[in-house]
Amino acid sequence: MKKLLVLAKEFPYGKYEQYMETEERYYTRFDKVWIAALDLREKTVRSRRDLQSKAEVIPVWYISRIFYHLNCLTIMTDGNLYKEIFELKRTHRLTKQRVMNLLYYLSKAHHEARVIDKVLKKESKNDFLIYSYRFDYQPYVALLLKKKWGNKIKIVCRAHGYDLYEERNINNYIPMRRVLLNEVDYVFPCSNYGVKYIKSKYHIGKAQVDVRYLGTIDHGEKVFSSGKEPLSILSCSNVLNVKRIDKIIDALSLMKDIPIEWIHFGDGELMDEIREYARDKLSSNIKVSFAGNISNTELMKRYAAKDFYVFLNVSSSEGLPVSIMEAMSFGIPCIATDVGGTGEIVNNDDGILMSKDATPGEIAEAIRTVYNMNEDDYQALRHDARRFWENHFDANHNYNDFLEELTSLK
Question: What is the Cα–Cα distance from 403 to 213, expressed in whole angstroms?
Fold first, then answer.
């Protein structure tokens, strides 16, 4: 009997890790599935997404930062604590802040491993695979469980953005990278860029590191028929500094001669600031709609119902954006900055790939390039975007292959 334990961050509760909704339906290849919803908060559990795999959910609550610091007494026997401190000292990265991060990381991992172990104590550990959806502290939870449950258990991790690139984290540090790369069996970044990052930065250990693309569901290619005015521009992301929504506003402020309708899906800590910035900066020729967070199902209905002319992503850092996959699956051409793995999906045959630090003027010029295309060239661009998605990012193909691979691991 093949058994799968998935370590997720809150999923299936709340709105985080929405892209697991697509992958989760393929877990049915396993005979028994548990999803440990780690780091759960009170406000998160008010909503829970339906599961198609019929997985059993193990809620693992976040307690408090004070608790995790007090709990540090329980990790003093963990030999990896001292290995990591030595590694920080050896690489001249030992600071008080990083040690505090390390203690919090280990304390949290030990606590969550105890919770999961208690729930699954009586379950046979034969043919058991632990799969961490993130490459942050969750794989260390898996390592602790493996020590309790036996060395025959395999550990597989995905790696995306903040959980992969240390530079996106406080103090430019994610604990236990070398330990994990020497102990887990497989690490699957979502882009070739991520694979190169791991291999060049850590020179890896025994873990096999290779790309495994995510994917999106096919909702059908959208036939664009409404004309180019007003120019309908789409963006979709959390409203955070790394997403640089202000750059979109700056670019659109330069386009006073074209009627534009810009819709942004997503929310975040900078939402109020971005709304005010748009009000102050944009001219009357631009109609703006901040649609906020909606379910992925509803989002796909909106994409199918409306003619969007172009999709924008101007992030300063990415893994490989699922938001771009979704747009291209409908045949929407994308304009994006060349960060992370974005260049593996957007190229100058199916969209426009700009430099990482594209200026507002360059972004505006890219939008105008698509706007000024004749009808045949524009329709060809849409067709090429859709074909590239079909060949590389179709969820049915990617997730079937991925789960078949997981079930065959020995």
Answer: 12
pTM across the whole model: 0.91
> Cβ atoms within 10 A of the Cβ of 276, count?
10
Kind plus residue range of the DSSP H or E element containing 60: strand 56-61
51, 71 Cβ separation under 8 angstroms: no
Closest CA to 174 of 240, 87, 113: 87
As a whole number, the mean pLDDT across the chain is: 93
Q: Which residues pair with 336 in a beta bridge?
A: 313, 353
Radius of gyration of the chain (CA): 22
Backbone angles phi and psi of 132, in degrees to 5: -95, 125
Report the alpha-carbon distance of residue 361 to residue 371 in Å, rounded: 15
Minimal CA–CA distance to 402: which of 155, 246, 146, 211? 211
DSSP H/E element including 366: helix 360-371
Alpha-carbon span 266 to 291, nearest angstrom: 7
Which residue is listed with tokens 């954006």?
321
In the predicted model, residues of the chain with pLDDT beneath 50 are none
Helices 96-119 and 79-90 sit at what angle, rounded to 10 degrees?
150
Q: What is the DSSP letter of 85?
A: H
Spell out a b/e string for 50-78, using b for 16 or more CB atoms within 10 Å of the CB, else e. Answer: ebebebebbbbebeeeeebeebbeebeeb
For 166-200, the pLDDT digits (tens) are 998 889 999 999 999 999 999 999 999 999 999 99
Nearest to 192 by CA among 281, 100, 62, 320: 320
Which of 354, 344, 350, 336 lies closest to 378 in space, CA to CA?
A: 350
Q: Length of the chain in residues, anyone? A: 410
Give the number of other CB atoms < 10 A from CB of residue 290.
16
In the chain the domains, ranked by start, together with CATH numbers, are 3-215+395-408 (3.40.50.2000), 231-392 (3.40.50.2000)
